[in-house]
C-alpha cells in the first residue's frame, strides 16, 4: 500500500479521496490554488502545496507541476479525482513515466475510450450494442440523406469530435436535413474546431442508465449495477439514483455483462463507467465509457456496500479484488442531489458570495459529501457544484421521503443554491412515479423553478415569522402548538430566529 498520495483536485472530491486515504492509513498531499488556500480539503490533508493562482489553467490543470510536487513531497501515487486531468491520457502517461502511480486506468485505456468513434469501433468488435449509425463523418447532405433513409427518421446528427450534446441536431424529415447539417457543422466547428458530423438513428425519450465497472490488475472485471441519471439539465446531471426503476435483475445482468465486455476490450483497470441509452422497450445502446470515478459514485457505494475510492487506491497498489460477481446485488435505494451554487428561480444562473451559515442534514441514512463550510467564498473560477446530498433507504419511496427531510434540514445562507429545486422534484408526482426520461426535466423545468412559487412561499414565511417573533416577545402562543400538542419553546429558540423556526417547521425555507 502507498505511504503517501497526492490528491490532484479540489472541493468535495478532494476531501472524498483524502478521507479514503486516511482510513487506509495513507498520508495525503493536497494541492490548492490561491483561491482555495482556506478550503476544507487543504486543512484535512497531512500536507498541502499551493500550485498557482485561481484559474484552473494556471493551477489544477498544470500537470507537470502536480507531478513535480508529488515527487518533491515523496508521494508514490496521484489520484486525479474527476474533471481536471482525470481523463487526459498524456497526464496518466506522464505520471507513469515519472515513476509514480496514476490511480486510475492505464493511459492506453483512456485513449481507447477517449475518442467517441474509436470507442464505438472497439465496443462493436466486442459485441456491445450501439445505436445504428455511421461513425465516420458524413461527406455532404446527399450522403446524409441516403444514410438516413436506411435508418428511418428521426435521425440524430452528432459532432464527431465531442460529446455533451454540442452540435447535436434531431432531424425528423428529409427536407430538414440539409439545414440541420449546416448548423451542426457550424456548432461543431466552434465548439471543437472540427466540423465532422456523423449520423445515428435517434432514440426517442430514452433513459440515461450507466453501469459502474471495477477491474483489478489481475484480470478480474466486475460490474456494480446501474445508476439512473436521466434527471439532467443541458446535459448536466442534477439527480442520480441506484438502482433504476426500469432495470430488472435480468436486464441488470445483461447490461452489466455488456459493460464488462466493453471494459475488457479496452484493457481497462480501476473504476470506470459505461453510459447507455435505455429505451422504452428495454433495448439499450452503448454511448461512451467514462474513464474516471464519477460524481455520482456514492449511490452505488450505498446500495452495493463498498467504498469505491478505497478500492481504486487498493487496485492501483496492486491488490486483487476479493469479490465475485454474485456478491453484488443492490440493497435498498439511494438518491443523490447535486447541491450547486445556482439560482433555480433565475435560470440556474451562478450565484456567488460568502456562505454565511451552513446547517447540514444528518440522521439515519443521510450522507453529505461536501467541499464547503460557513465562511467559504464561492466564486466563478470553478464548477458550481458545492456538495452532494445522498440518502439511502429500504425503498425508493422511503428514499424520496428521506431526501425531502434532509433537504428541509439543509440550510445554506449567503448564496442561492439548487436546494429548492430538488425539494420540488421530490414532491413531483411524475418523479415519484419513476416514469422519467432524459427529456423529463426540460419539459418540467417551467413548473419546478417558477419564481412565483418562491415568492408566495416567502411571503407566507414572512408572515409566519412575524407571528412567531411576536409570540416570542409576548410569551403568548400564536402559531407554535402548546406543549401538550407536541410544540415546545425549544422548537422556536432552537432555530435562533422566527424565520428559521417557522420556515424549518413548515418546510417553507426557500
Ligand atoms: C443520443 C440520444 C438519442 N439518440 N443518441 C447526449 C450527449 C451524449 N452523451 C449523447 N447524447 C444523446 N445521444 C441517439 N442516437 C440522446 C442523447 C441525449 C442525452 C443522452 C444522455 C443523457 C442526456 C441526454 C440529453 C439529451 C440527449
How would you describe this structure to a colleague?
The chain is 37% helix and 23% strand. It is of the alpha+beta class and 510 residues long. It folds into four domains: 4-103, Rossmann fold, CATH 3.40.50; 132-201, ATP-grasp fold, A domain (Dna Ligase, domain 1); 207-448, ATP-grasp fold, B domain (D-amino Acid Aminotransferase, Chain A, domain 1, 2-Layer Sandwich), CATH 3.30.470.20; 455-505, no CATH class. The strands form six sheets. An eight-stranded antiparallel sheet has the order 14-13-10-11-12-15-22-20, sandwiched between helices. Strand 2 (27-33), helix 2 and strand 3 form a beta-alpha-beta unit. Helix 4 (89-97) runs antiparallel to helix 5 (107-114), helix 12 runs antiparallel to helix 13 (419-426) and helix 16 (451-474) crosses helix 18 (498-506). Residues 131, 156, 163-165, 200-203, 208, 232, 235, 277, 287, 438 line the site of ligand MV4. Ligand MV4 is lined by residues 131, 156, 163-165, 200-203, 208, 232, 235, 277, 287, 438.
Amino acid at each position: 500500500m502507498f505511504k503517501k498520495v497526492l490528491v490532484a483536485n479540489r472541493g468535495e472530491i478532494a476531501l472524498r479521496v483524502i478521507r479514503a486515504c486516511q482510513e487506509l492509513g495513507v498520508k495525503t498531499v493536497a494541492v490548492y490554488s490561491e483561491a482555495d488556500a482556506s478550503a476544507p480539503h487543504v486543512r484535512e490533508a497531512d500536507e498541502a502545496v499551493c500550485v498557482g493562482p485561481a484559474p484552473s489553467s494556471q493551477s489544477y490543470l498544470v500537470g507537470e507541476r502536480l507531478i513535480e510536487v508529488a515527487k518533491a513531497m515523496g508521494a508514490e501515487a496521484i489520484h486525479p479525482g474527476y474533471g481536471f486531468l482525470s481523463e487526459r491520457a498524456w497526464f496518466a502517461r506522464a505520471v507513469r513515466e515519472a515513476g509514480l502511480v496514476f490511480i486510475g486506468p492505464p493511459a492506453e485505456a483512456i485513449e481507447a475510450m477517449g475518442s467517441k468513434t474509436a470507442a464505438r469501433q472497439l465496443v462493436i468488435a466486442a459485441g456491445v450494442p450501439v445505436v445504428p449509425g455511421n461513425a465516420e463523418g458524413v461527406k455532404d447532405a446527399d450522403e446524409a440523406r441516403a444514410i438516413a433513409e436506411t435508418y428511418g427518421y428521426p435521425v440524430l446528427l452528432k459532432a464527431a469530435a465531442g460529446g455533451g450534446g454540442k452540435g447535436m441536431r434531431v432531424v425528423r424529415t428529409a427536407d430538414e436535413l440539409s439545414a440541420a447539417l449546416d448548423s451542426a457543422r457550424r456548432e461543431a466547428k466552434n465548439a471543437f474546431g472540427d466540423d465532422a458530423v456523423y449520423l445515428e438513428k435517434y432514440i426517442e425519450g430514452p433513459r440515461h442508465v450507466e453501469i459502474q465497472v471495477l477491474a483489478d490488475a489481475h484480470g478480474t472485471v466486475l460490474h456494480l449495477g446501474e445508476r439512473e441519471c436521466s434527471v439532467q439539465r443541458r446535459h448536466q446531471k442534477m439527480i442520480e439514483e441506484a438502482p433504476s426503476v426500469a432495470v430488472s435483475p435480468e436486464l441488470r445482468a445483461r447490461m452489466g455483462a455488456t459493460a464488462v465486455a466493453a471494459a475488457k476490450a479496452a484493457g481497462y483497470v480501476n473504476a470506470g463507467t459505461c453510459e447507455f441509452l435505455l429505451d422504452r422497450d428495454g433495448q439499450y445502446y452503448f454511448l461512451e465509457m467514462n474513464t474516471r470515478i464519477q460524481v455520482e459514485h456514492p449511490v452505488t457505494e450505498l446500495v452495493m456496500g463498498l467504498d469505491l475510492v478505497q478500492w481504486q487506491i487498493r487496485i492501483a497498489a496492486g491488490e486483487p479484488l476479493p469479490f465475485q460477481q454474485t456478491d453484488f446485488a443492490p440493497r435498498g435505494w439511494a438518491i443523490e442531489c447535486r447541491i450547486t451554487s445556482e439560482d433555480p428561480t433565475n435560470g440556474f444562473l451562478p450565484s456567488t458570495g460568502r456562505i454565511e451559515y451552513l446547517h447540514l442534514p444528518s440522521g439515519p441514512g443521510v450522507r453529505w459529501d461536501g467541499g464547503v463550510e460557513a465562511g467559504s467564498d464561492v466564486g466563478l473560477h470553478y464548477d458550481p457544484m458545492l456538495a452532494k446530498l445522498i440518502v439511502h433507504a429500504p425503498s425508493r419511496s422511503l428514499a424520496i421521503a428521506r431526501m425531502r427531510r434532509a433537504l428541509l434540514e439543509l440550510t445554506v445562507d449567503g448564496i442561492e443554491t439548487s436546494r429548492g429545486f430538488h425539494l420540488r422534484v421530490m414532491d413531483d408526482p411524475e418523479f415519484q412515479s419513476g416514469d422519467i426520461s432524459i427529456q423529463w426535466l426540460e419539459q418540467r423545468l417551467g413548473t419546478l423553478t417558477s419564481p412565483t412559487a418562491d415568492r408566495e412561499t416567502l411571503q407566507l414565511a414572512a408572515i409566519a415569522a412575524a407571528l412567531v417573533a411576536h409570540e416570542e416577545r409576548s410569551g403568548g402562543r400564536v402559531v407554535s402548538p402548546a406543549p401538550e400538542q407536541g410544540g415546545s419553546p425549544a422548537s422556536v429558540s432552537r432555530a435562533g430566529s422566527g424565520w428559521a423556526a417557522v420556515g424549518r417547521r413548515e418546510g417553507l425555507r426557500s
